[in-house]
Amino acid sequence: MLSKNVVITDEAAGKHVELPVIRGTEGEPTLDIKAVPSTLGYFTYDPGYAATASCTSEITFIDGNKGILRYRGYPIEQLAERSTFVEVAYLLLFGELPIEEQLNQFRDELTYHTMIHERLNHFISGFHYDAHPMAMMAGVVGSLAAFYHNRLDMENPEERVLSAKRMIAKMPTIAAACYRHHMGWPIAYPRNRLRFCERFLDMMFSVPSEQYMVSEVAARALDLLFILHADHEQNASTSTVRLVGSTGANPYACVAAGISALWGPAHGGANEAVLAMLDEIGSVGNVPHFIDRAKDKNDPFRLMGFGHRVYKNYDPRAAIIRQACYEVLDELGKDDPMMDLAMELERIALEDDFFVEKKLYPNVDFYSGIIYKALGIPVSMFTVMFAIARTVGWVSQWIEQSETPTKIGRPRQVYRGPQERKYKALHRRG
Ligand code: SDX
Predict the structure, then answer these.
(1) Residue 298 gets which letter from DSSP?
(2) Contact by Cβ (8 Å): 228, 239
(3) 0.90 surpassed by pTM
């Protein structure tokens, strides 16, 4: 029996309210609580928004109990196996898989927006050589507004899509420029004859002194990782982009805010933190000790790359990346003891009641670093990789929100500070 509404009664006050039940095409039924404050005089309290839907969306669906992830209805497993990152970007942005002509045109449009203003390269050269690349990305992407802001009519749908394409296209260029600044190498300009991931690897690793041959294996592995990281419904960074977008801020400022939110180790920064954790564990023999630390409430140590707000089952992305680790390491002829360590850590954790009861499984960040490392990408750039891919989700969700009338996001609070009191002159204090 599907309820059309749910009645909440405040018996002491003799009041009740009927709350409409909102149903999507998939997922849990949701109570529309808008009427609660005006009818019952209560606000609702949900720190971390664990039980709160912030919007409706048609882009990505997750079923955390079943470990399901779909982009515009297409299962992530099918997209990972048969699609490309550029095609997935088109799908997330426009809602349908492109026909060949649309795909080729979209790919060309991204190709012809890859360059950044030369002054941005000077901006990047102003950072200290050891600045964290995520700090550089947040600053540089936010500054894109300085180059396009006065030409951006956000009421114009075509302008919104153009700024989305610009950011998807320019993120790899900016990321590679930040890396090369750290390495002390000259900027490598985008080569348009290369495809998205090949072009990025060329911008990252080519040097003027010799011909750089892009590894097909590396490009394919990166394409897979970018597909898997492209969107994930209302995660912290995407919710940040939507919240900033709800104020009417320009898309570059929205994505810069998303980059900052993604950086945190509880979110996209976890892929970097996983490698640091595996480094700290060092060997399989030390795993039980760190498992005990992760279970100790008094120890702040957590198993990075484990657990998820939504997935209470194996993150489908982690399963795909785990398999890809083997294939990439094998095809590159590399062996990484960290893979064995990660596998043993996963095995022991998933046999431990603490992790089973709390439904803590490996998430997208647990294995991704193994592949990035095999591709020669430094640990400090791991979250930048995540940001390059997630830019597609951020701009897709920003456009979706921009297309519908949106109230400014403005949560309330439970105030626990001092009640009213009188000002005291300086000489009467203390
Ligand atoms: C991403 O939202 C998204 O979709 C994010 C993402 C995306 O694609 O955008 O999927 C990408 O951010 C993946 C998550 C990457 N973060 C990490 O791997 C960091 C380690 N994981 C945790 O910090 C944690 O699991 C979170 C932040 C991911 C989720 O936190 P929740 O949902 O708020 O859960 P919680 O912190 O309340 O944990 C529930 C319980 C707690 O114990 P109790 O208070 O109930 O006793 O599980 C414990 C936690 O202490 N717990 C862990 C743990 N994660 C949760 N204990 C040990 N190790 C862990 N990793």
Answers:
(1) T
(2) no
(3) yes
Task: Confirm if 125 and 235 have CB atoms less than 8 A apart.
Answer: no
* Closest CA to ligand 1's atom 9: 235
Please return the burial class of 280, using the count of CB atoms within 10 Å of its CB with bins 0-12, 13-18 and 19+.
exposed
pLDDT along the chain (430 residues), means of 10: 89 96 95 96 96 97 97 98 98 98 98 96 95 97 87 87 96 98 96 97 96 95 98 98 96 97 97 96 95 96 95 95 95 93 95 95 95 96 98 98 93 97 97
Taking the C-alpha atoms of residue 117 and residue 120, their distance in angstroms, rounded to an integer, is 5
The Å distance, Cα 267 to ligand 1 centre, comes to 9
- State residue 224's pLDDT score: 98
Instruction: Round to whole Å and give the CA distance between 166 and 172.
Output: 11
Catalytic residues: 267, 308, 365
Is 270 touching ligand 1 by the criterion CB < 6 Å?
Answer: yes
Question: Residue 39 in contact with residue 15, Cβ under 8 Å?
Answer: yes
The answer to whether 61 and 73 are in contact (CB under 8 A) is yes
311 CA distance to ligand 1 middle (Å) = 10
Find residue 68's DSSP bridge partners.
63
Ligand 1 in reach of 302 Cβ (< 6 A) = yes
Taking CA atoms only, the protein residue closest to ligand 1 atom 33 is 309
- For residue 190, report the phi and psi dihedrals to the nearest 5 degrees: -60, 135
**Does residue 309 have its Cβ closer than 6 Å to ligand 1?**
yes
Decide whether any atom of ligand 1 lies within 6 Å of the 363 Cβ. yes
